[in-house]
Amino acid sequence: MEIRKNSGPVKWFFIGISAVFLVTMLILPLIYVMTTAFSAGIPAFSNTVKDKYALKAIGLTVRVTLITLGINVIFGLFASWCITRFQFHGKKVLSTLIDLPLTVSPIIAGLIYVLTFGRQSMLYPILQKADISIIFAVPGIVLATIFVTFPFVSREIIPVLNSIGTDEEEAAALMGANGFTIFFGITLPHIKWALLYGIVLCAARAMGEFGAVSVLSGHLRGKTNTMPLYIELLYQGYDFTGAFAVSAILVFMAVVILILRSILEDKGKGSIENGKPE
């Protein structure tokens, strides 16, 4: 308590260090991105954003993000329920594997899928016969994005499920409630803010993914270029204004997600402090 009340030089020193770090590493780069994006004027910015390849990159990014969210929400709910509500051999192994994408480089993840579904793979003749394209196609981008983002939903839900315990669910089961009634009537109200928070984090990660997607996409302009890849393409083509214009759109999307994250975080804390779901 004394440390918190301390208004001496130590507190202001740490505040100053934090402020300098944030300004240098975050605020100045963002200002530079926005300034460069509009350096040629609003018409040039508008033309860049309205370019057909930019629109396709934005559309592909949104589409991949939505598919990723749908799959990861289902997986996150199932994995969280399995880990917190059942005892079985290999439970710690499963929990460790869920965290694997957080420790593996995204580029390695992309290479893993290339080895699994590429021409040298045993699966390739089967996929080719079925006319299914994964490498250098949208399905590969979706797989890579799912891999790097699937821990986010489950890792937000698991602590909440552990904290609320199973008393209410067991009581409902004893009174004859079925599994769907227990989940939607008891469990979901408790975890809804954690679930939404995990969805927001997953969306932010999916929109900005570069490494794994870069390996699997083939950089086909207008077909497999997501926004980060399209930004790299413009930058390497010395179209700096265009690259920063598309970056500004990505920054705007990130800011919206950041605001949603803050709102959901406050809602979740309020729910916990009240001792009941809102």
Topology:
Layout: H1 2-5, H2 9-37, H3 42-50, H4 52-85, H5 91-98, H6 100-103, H7 106-117, H8 124-129, H9 138-149, H10 151-164, H11 167-174, H12 179-208, H13 211-217, H14 227-236, H15 240-274
Give the oligomeric state.
Answer: single chain
The proportion of residues forming helix, as a percent range, comes to: over 70%
Total number of beta strands: 0
Q: Write down the Rg.
A: 23 Å
Q: What is the terminal-to-terminal distance?
A: 31 Å
Shape: globular
Strand content: under 5%
Mean pLDDT: 85
At the first level of CATH, the class of the largest domain is Mainly Alpha
Largest β-sheet summary: none
Q: Looking at this structure, what is the CATH superfamily of the largest domain?
A: MetI-like
Per the CATH scheme, the topology name of the largest domain is MetI-like fold
Work out the helix count: 15
CATH architecture of the largest domain: Orthogonal Bundle
Q: Which structural class do the helices and strands define?
A: mainly alpha
Order of helices and strands: HHHHHHHHHHHHHHH
The count of domains is 2
Low-confidence stretches: none
